[in-house]
Amino acid sequence: MNLLEIENVSKTFGGLIAVRNVTVYVERGEILGLIGPNGAGKTTLFNLISGATLPDSGSIFFEGKNVEAMADYQISQRGISRTYQIVKPFNNLTVLENVLVGAFNKIDSRKLAKEVSLDLLDFVGLYGKRDHTANRLTLAEKKSLELARALATQPKLILLDEVMAGLNPKEQTAAINLILEMNRKGMTLLVIEHKMKIIMSISKRIIVLHYGEKIAEGPPEEISRHPKVIEAYLGGKDAVA
Amino acid sequence: MMSKQVKKLSYGLVFVATACFLFWGPHLLSSYLLHVVILILFFSFLGSAWNVVSGYAGQFSFGHSAFFGVGAYLSSLLYVKSGISPWIGMLVGAVFAAGLGGFIGYLTFRYKLKGAFFALSTFAFSEMLRIIALNWSITGKAMGILIPLKEGGSFQAFQFIDKLSYYYIILLMVLCVLSVSYGLDHSKLGYYFKAIREDEEAAGSLGINILKYKTIALAISAFFTALGGTFYAQYMFYIDPDIAFGTNVTIEMILRTMLGGVGTVFGPLIGSAVLESMAEVIRSFLGEYKGVSLMLYAAMLIFVMIFFPHGLMGLVRRRPKEAADPIKR
Q1: Tell me, what DSSP letter sits at residue B289?
Q2: From CA B326, how far away is CA B317, in angstroms rounded?
Q3: What is the pLDDT, as a whole number, of residue B134?
Q4: Mean pLDDT, all residues of chain B
Q5: In whole angstroms, what is the distance from residue A178 CA to residue A172 CA?
Q6: CB-based contact B225:B73 (threshold 8 Å)
Q7: Nearest-angstrom CA–CA distance, A238 and A216
Q8: Which of B199, B325, B327 is opposite residue A90, by nearest beta carbon?
């Protein structure tokens, strides 16, 4: 049984078909890459998985259980956590308090939750800034904070929405190392990433979305040669000047 | 450097001194000053109650007089009509108000009413109750309820000759609501409230049931507000629909809390103390020029709002000790 199975899921917003009949599975312990040009439906797919929006049709199974009709908090309690492309830290809370909120998902004791949170802040490199309010962090730090906060809920699957976007090369390397380290510890990750080079280096399997449809799936080498993918990214033969 | 024991000892001394001051200090006050102190405590109590849902959970209510009035009317009616002690009525009113808060919360939050829309909905409920109280014979219509006095006062009837007793009661109530606020500042429940205030979508993705926790916040807030309502009725011995359900009391809660600092433990108390003293001083010096005191009062409020948007507590907010922090654990 796969950890997550998405079957024929569709979602339209008014006349716009954001996701059309997409079927994806995520194996336990893998890093699955999700790529596609702007507006391909990647974030919408994330919103469907995490319960932020409900699908029009299709089903989503997490650990064999039907979850497509569940609310976001129920899905989080079941073990799927996420970060946001446009970061959403709790700005007026301190860095530590941000992570604490996540930790309370599975831990009721404040003392224990604090210990877990401090460990995670150490892991993402924000321990030194634990008492800063979140609005004073840099973008890279805010992304790390979201990662720590998502991890604090003790998820089985974590959805990362463009954690590298806006980071400089040094920060990107640090983020890649964090992702690989999380995976080594047994975490399953579904990663949206814009930069082909990065996603190809960290995931063994990649899904490509284009205009809401899945157009390719496979190992990185195959994806980079796939004619439909090349067409989607370069705009087809005619468009190549 | 102070050693830990010295520090502990000094904290202890400060605590004992404060306790003695709070206990014996009022004996030295004139009846007028004691009344001012009681009003400061009373409005800070209400402000703290409002602060639970509006400050911590970030759902700005403009209809808290609904709960205040429910507390005032229920305990008074129970006493006047069936002779039930206002102490019991106080608790009944609070529980009833909490239920009402839960009901209003569930209705409004279920449809994701936010900001001005939520504020207007709460206002609508308080107005509804005001109009019911104004037209219902049981609540005494526009005449309101005059609480019959017992000669010599009576603890059972929540009636006292001396203001000092009222002072101790409201002091106890304030200490109680302050500990609740402090508890919220340091507990899972409070962090959930604050997370919802900061970003609902992110809070939901971290496993927080937004509807449930917002409703809880409003119910807790309503519970304490109603306790204040009973205190008011028993202190003034008179309530009518405008006093109990009108906007004045709501505005007092909001103003004092905003002045002191929304979403902080001591904000409502500090705001209430500053505002009440300010109002009294202005009134005593400029009372003969009608309206001037109100104008000055308003000007000072505007000044504070512009220059201290986080309230007076914003001035003393703790700064992180950056230099002392180790980079790594």
Answers
A1: S
A2: 22
A3: 95
A4: 90
A5: 10
A6: no
A7: 21
A8: B199
Q: Which residues of A touch B (CB under 8 A)?
A: 50-52, 71-73, 76-77, 81-82, 84, 88-94, 97, 100-102, 104-105, 108, 110, 113, 118, 122, 127-132, 149-150, 152-153
C-alpha B82/C-alpha B291 separation (Å) is 43
Query: Residue ranges of chain A with pLDDT lower than 50?
Result: 239-241
Q: In the structure, what pLDDT confidence band is assigned to residue B328 with cuts at 50, 70 and 90?
A: very low
Minimal-distance CA residue of chain B relative to A76: B207
* CATH of region A1-79+156-241: 3.40.50.300
**What is the ipTM for the molecules in this complex?**
0.90
Kindly list the residues of chain B whose beta carbon comes within 8 Å of any beta carbon in chain A.
186-188, 191-192, 194-195, 198-199, 201-210, 320-322, 325-329
The residue ranges of every structural domain in chain B are 29-312
List beta partners, residue A24: A6
Structure confidence by residue, pLDDT tens digits, A228-240: 888 888 775 554 4
CATH 1.10.3470 fits B29-312, yes or no: yes
Measured distance CA(B241)–CA(B235) in Å, rounded = 17
Q: Which of B227, B91, B84 is nearest to B156 (CA)?
A: B84
| Domain extent listing, chain A | 1-79+156-241, 81-154
Q: Which residues contact A96 (CB under 8 A, 6 or more apart)?
A: A114, A117, A118, A121, A130, A131
Strands (E), A55-195: 57-62, 65-66, 80-82, 157-161, 188-192
The model's pTM is 0.90
Interface contacts (A, B; CB < 8 Å): 96
Place of tokens 């508890």: B183
Q: What is the gyration radius of the CA atoms in chain B, in angstroms?
A: 21
Please report where in the chains the tokens 């008492």 appear, as a residue.
Answer: A131
- Angle, to 10 degrees, between the axis of helix A139-152 and the axis of helix A110-124? 140
